[in-house]
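Q: Convert this sequence to structure tokens.
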Amino acid sequence: MGNLSLNTATDTEVMAKLGQRLRGLRESRGLTSIEAAQQTGLARRTLYRAEQGQNPTLETLVRLLRLYGRVHALADLAPEAEASPMALMQRAKKRSRG
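A:
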């Protein structure tokens, strides 16, 4: 997220940066806040608050990222969990017993 180190940033700083990025994505698409709100079914105030980093809901974030063609970015936010070799062995043992 730019020069902001996520390891040392406060939650408030991270949320502010997220809001800036959401606004940048909207502006890069040439959308006004009214247009973006209408196209996502969000209230204009909800969009404004998200762009201010004021704790948007996950649903708001998904709607905005979908509109901006970036919903695939959520895969980086919550990647698939990888099972450890030990967990795989334990599952196999349970299946063989059951």
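The chain has one domain: 11-97.
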